[in-house]
Structures are given as structure tokens and as C-alpha cells.
Amino acid sequence: MSLLKILYYPDTRLRLIAKPVNEVNKKIKKIVNNMIDTMYQEEGIGLAATQVNIQLQIIVINTMEEEKNNLVLINPKIIKKEGNISIEEGCLSIPEYRASIPRYNYIKVQAINIYGEKIEIEAESILSICIQHEIDHLQGKLFIDYLSKFKRERIQKKIQKKRKNIDQGIK
């Protein structure tokens, strides 16, 4: 088990656009396994490779149906979307902040699985939200980008204040 270091907002590497994976080989499988270990260690329900400074189109998701039942999507692409849903979302790269973000309730996704096979999956509700959230990461987009300028600036100020306090040894 190797844990990967999560990038935290406002790290500019979170804004990089991930490149497609050309071949699912031993190296890619190792990255996926490390991402899964990191996701569980950090108690997240999803993780995009860009969040651990790997600029490849890979996401892992805990489907929450059974313990350690993970969904691995390589080069994911939403091909159908319907309905609306909004719940409070959080992000491992922006800890302690949550916001309701408008998403599609249903999506159909094409991707490659860990075995290098083309797959299509359908997702609804929280699984759909999680997949959309992680795909956004692959495109350099964060959930706070959906917020108003005022709310985004408020979060940025809180993060700056917290960072300043940490630098000064204040909790």
C-alpha cells in the first residue's frame, strides 16, 4: 500500500487538464491501487488522479454498495445526462468546506476499466454526483467553481486566514 499526497486548493496543479490513458498497463494499475488506498485513508468517496498530482484521466469511486467495492473509470466520458439534483458536496482537496452544487441526477458514462476493457455504466443520485465531481477534476474544475463569486471569495479568504494561522502556529 502506498499513499499518495493530496493537493489542496489553491494549488494551481489542481487546474491542469488530465491526459487520456493510452494503455492500461502495470504502471496504471499501480496508480489505481494507490489511489484507492489514498481514498480510503482520507475517508473520501471518490478521487481523481489530478488530486494526487497525476495528470491522467483516472478516477476511483467507492460505490458504497459493499465495503471496498470500487468503481475505476479510465478516460471517463459522460454520453447521456438527465434530470437535476443538488446535495451538499465536499472535496478532499478543499477540506472543511461544503456547498450544494447543481448536477445531473442520471448519467451514462463510457470509460475503460482496470482490465483495459471499454465499459458503459449508468449512475443515479449520489453515485452520479460523485462521478461528475471527479470528472470535473480531470478537466481542472473544482466544485467551488459552481458557486457565486461572493461565496468563492469567502471560501478563499477563510483558507488564506487558516493558512496564515497555521504558519504562525495559531490553531
UniProtKB/TrEMBL annotation:
GO terms for molecular function: metal ion binding; peptide deformylase activity. It is an enzyme of class 3 (hydrolase). Fe cation binds at C91, H133, H137. Its cofactor is Fe(2+). Pfam families: Pep_deformylase (PF01327). It catalyses: N-terminal N-formyl-L-methionyl-[peptide] + H2O = N-terminal L-methionyl-[peptide] + formate. Binds 1 Fe(2+) ion. CDD domains: Pep_deformylase (cd00487). InterPro entries: Peptide_deformylase, Peptide_deformylase_sf. GO terms for biological process: translation. Signal peptide: none annotated. Keywords: Hydrolase, Iron, Metal-binding, Protein biosynthesis. The active site is at E134. Its EC number is 3.5.1.88. Removes the formyl group from the N-terminal Met of newly synthesized proteins. Requires at least a dipeptide for an efficient rate of reaction. N-terminal L-methionine is a prerequisite for activity but the enzyme has broad specificity at other positions. PANTHER family: PEPTIDE DEFORMYLASE. Belongs to the polypeptide deformylase family. This is Peptide deformylase. The lineage of its organism: Bacteria, Pseudomonadati, Pseudomonadota, Gammaproteobacteria, Enterobacterales. The gene is def.
